[in-house]
């Protein structure tokens, strides 16, 4: 019986970690649950890679501070319901929930209700995110497909491909073009 209980607990922990894709919930880093209510229909067929143009971060404390600042800016300065991106990725290799997999964000005008916006914290016009951050993005996307949040045939683009912006930055855009599922034009 003892081995059975250990097995069940192990399976539950594995399933919960797998389904959440290792994402730090907004309630944990932001102090309160998301105010976003509009449901995003899954599986999503479009992933948009962005950068925040904020400062970069490499420690848990610094990344959470920057994420909170972005959230406050979006809510109180821009008048959004909550933080815009679906997810934020820090230089520490951790993924922070924004709108998440199941709620419509406010990251890319005209595409919000049919895409996931993944924003790297920092400005990547002249440099790349850390190796840990890039790996976190790949893992997040892969987990999204595994858990049917993303379609197996999803398309991936840089923010500048669908909106007049420098985001995700010249250097990050160049590497995004080499990723699986990258497309020149969204269908």
From TrEMBL:
Domain Peptidoglycan recognition protein family positions: 21-163
Key words, A-Z: Disulfide bond, Immunity, Innate immunity, Signal
Signal peptide positions on this chain: 1-17
The keyword Disulfide bond is annotated on this UniProt entry: yes
Pfam families xrefs: Amidase_2
SUPFAM superfamilies, per database record: N-acetylmuramoyl-L-alanine amidase-like (SSF55846)
Matches recorded under Gene3D superfamilies: Peptidoglycan recognition protein-like
PANTHER family cross-referenced by the UniProt entry: PEPTIDOGLYCAN RECOGNITION PROTEIN, PEPTIDOGLYCAN-RECOGNITION PROTEIN LC-RELATED
Name of the molecule in the record: Peptidoglycan-recognition protein
Organism annotation: Galleria mellonella
């Amino acid at each position: 019986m003892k081995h059975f209980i250990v097995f069940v607990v192990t399976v539950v922990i594995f399933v919960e970690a797998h389904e959440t894709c290792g994402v730090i919930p907004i309630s944990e880093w932001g102090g309160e649950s998301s105010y976003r209510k509009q449901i995003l229909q899954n599986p999503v067929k479009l992933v948009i890679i962005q950068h925040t143009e904020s400062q970069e971060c490499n420690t848990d404390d610094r990344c959470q501070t920057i994420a909170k600042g972005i959230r406050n800016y979006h809510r109180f300065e821009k008048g959004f319901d909550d933080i815009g991106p679906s997810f934020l990725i820090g230089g520490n290799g951790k993924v922070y929930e924004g709108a998440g997999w199941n709620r419509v964000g406010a990251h890319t005008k005209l595409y919000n209700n049919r895409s996931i916006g993944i924003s790297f914290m920092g400005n990547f016009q002249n440099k790349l995110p850390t190796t840990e951050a890039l790996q976190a993005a790949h893992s997040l996307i892969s987990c999204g497909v595994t858990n049917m949040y993303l379609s197996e045939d999803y398309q991936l683009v840089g923010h500048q491909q669908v909106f007049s912006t420098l985001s995700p930055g010249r250097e990050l855009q160049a590497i995004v073009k080499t990723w699986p599922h990258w497309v020149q034009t969204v269908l």
